[in-house]
Amino acid sequence: MSEDRYALADQLRLPPGPVRLADLPTDAHPGLDGGKQEGVAALAALGAELAELQERMYADAYTGGSHRVLVVLQGMDTSGKGGVVEKAIGLLSPNGLRITSFKKPTDEELAHDFLWRIDRALPDPGVVGVFDRSHYEDVLVHRVHGLVDEAELERRYEAVNAWEKGLVDAGTVVVKCFLHISAETQKERLLARLDDPEKQWKFKPGDVDERQHWTDYQRAYEVALERCHTDAAPWYVVPADRKWYRNWAVARLLLDALRGMELGWPAPDYDVAEQRARLEAEGQE
Amino acid sequence: MSEDRYALADQLRLPPGPVRLADLPTDAHPGLDGGKQEGVAALAALGAELAELQERMYADAYTGGSHRVLVVLQGMDTSGKGGVVEKAIGLLSPNGLRITSFKKPTDEELAHDFLWRIDRALPDPGVVGVFDRSHYEDVLVHRVHGLVDEAELERRYEAVNAWEKGLVDAGTVVVKCFLHISAETQKERLLARLDDPEKQWKFKPGDVDERQHWTDYQRAYEVALERCHTDAAPWYVVPADRKWYRNWAVARLLLDALRGMELGWPAPDYDVAEQRARLEAEGQE
């Protein structure tokens, strides 16, 4: 069991050194034999343990603990950030869960440093936080479109590393997942949105414009992954061309994070027999 | 279909006039035949439609709509607010869901009027918001323990009604559920928490102290329900001695709220064929 336990994390963890996304698979399914049917079943099979460990962490915080988990989801358009939230994170209880979907910053947010809005979205102790996009957008979009200069980008990579280390030092496990898809998969998924009246609302003409910058985005991701791949908060590259694998893999990485806390149920800080007696004695008081 | 559609809401809606909680059942199961097995199955059967209507509301807001739903859960300790969130609200996608569990107010919150923190917890358009406890605590706890005088309580009932009407006028459906349990059920559930090492953390000796005020709390609820039962935002009294009924009933009331919006999928505001051509033309540009 303990050998298997970190096996997936080891396989998906970004290797050290220069990052070349073209060399990392988008359609592999390490750690999971079979196809869609097996993947969907494997995901469902994680549900009970995920929910129990989530509740243990919540209970731990309720009695003073400071553990939390932050799942950071990044990836190109259509890579499945929302799908992971629905299918994988959806296995958890909405109690003790905080999802934040970062959109284009508001004027108020722009008036602050880029980490300001991120910091405000952190989960409380005991809670599983999920970022659908994150502070990484500020070194991705901004780099691709030249919105800030090189010196500012450098400052941001360092600021991100310092901020994430602070989180980890305070008891947070940070699980950063890059959902890695091929350009061909994105094209298929955009076409599928156009073809389906229930999905057309998700499509914007701007998605095609952004797609023209595919190579620049891949390069921006390579730099961000490389610069912000730390011992405190490593990156995991999740092959995401197959939805069933992507969902299972993120759920499994989250499960590993929760297991790693090795939390039991908190012992009561009151006398159980005494409280029992108080309840039973009612009406005789 | 349309007759059945609002049938449960009609049955659970608080009758007009003076409220006597002792006259309202805690263990009935109107609208749902059978027992636990049927109840659990009936709840699960609502999942697909709930999730689809939730996504339609989200899509509607994404394209400019202003619909939202706010579910307010109130009830005595152990009435199952957390259980409803886990089992009923858990059928929705975490995308487009915002749960707020209101605890004892912080110093910052106390420095503002009682509705300040409530207002900040409102769901965005397109999102289903759930309050686990709410602004009603400020006319319940405060009344029972005499923390504020009668004039302030009067001001608060009025303020609540005005605030809720404002929400509704702006496109929010407010579903206020009082989870109604008997004193005997609470006693059983508190004892069950004491007996289970996985639940002992949920118990506080203060729960027994608060239970001594059972009658006062019931009275405080009667006044709050009566004073804040408005056309804009009526109260539903959900018999909650049976968990399977409670969970199903809240899910069903939420489903009715979403159905009532009669939302389709938004029509695209772009030319589908044109965008298709742009995607297909790639590499030839």
Structure at a glance:
The first copy, chain A, has 285 residues and is an alpha/beta fold.
Describe this entry's structure for a reader.
- Chain A has 285 residues and is α/β, with parallel strands linked by helices.
- Chain A has helices at residues 2-5, 7-12, 36-62, 81-87, 107-110, 116-120, 137-144, 150-169, 183-195, 205-211, 214-227, 243-260, 272-280; strands spanning 68-75, 97-101, 128-132, 172-180, 235-239.
- The first copy, chain A, has a five-stranded parallel beta sheet with strand order 2-3-1-4-5, sandwiched between helices.
- In chain A, helix 3 (36-62) runs parallel beside helix 12 and helix 7 (137-144) packs antiparallel against helix 11 (214-227).
- The radius of gyration of chain A is 21 Å and the shape is globular.
- Chain A binds chain B through residues 59, 62-63, 82, 85-86, 89-90, 92-95, 97, 99, 101, 130, 132, 187, 190-191, 194, 197-198, 200-205, 208, 211, 265-268, 270, 272, 275-276, 278-279, 282, and chain B through 59, 62-63, 82, 85-86, 89-90, 92-95, 97, 99, 101, 130, 132, 187, 190-191, 194, 197-198, 200-205, 208, 211, 265-268, 270, 272, 275-276, 278-280, 282.
Give the biggest sheet of chain A. 5 strands, parallel
The residue ranges of chain A in which pLDDT falls below 50 over 5 or more consecutive positions are none
Q: Order of SSEs of chain A, N→C?
A: HHHEHEHHEHHEHHHEHH
For the residues shown, what is the average pLDDT of chain A? 95
* Coarse morphology of chain A: globular
Helical/strand content category of chain A? alpha/beta
**Largest inter-chain interface?**
A-B, 42 and 43 residues
Radius of gyration of chain A: 21 Å
What's the quaternary structure here?
homodimer
Adjacency order of strands in the biggest sheet of chain A: 2-3-1-4-5
Number of strands of chain A: 5
Question: What distance lies between the first and last C-alpha atoms of chain A, to the nearest angstrom?
Answer: 53 Å
Q: Count of helical segments of chain A?
A: 13
Tell me the fraction of residues in β-strands of chain A, as a range: 5-15%
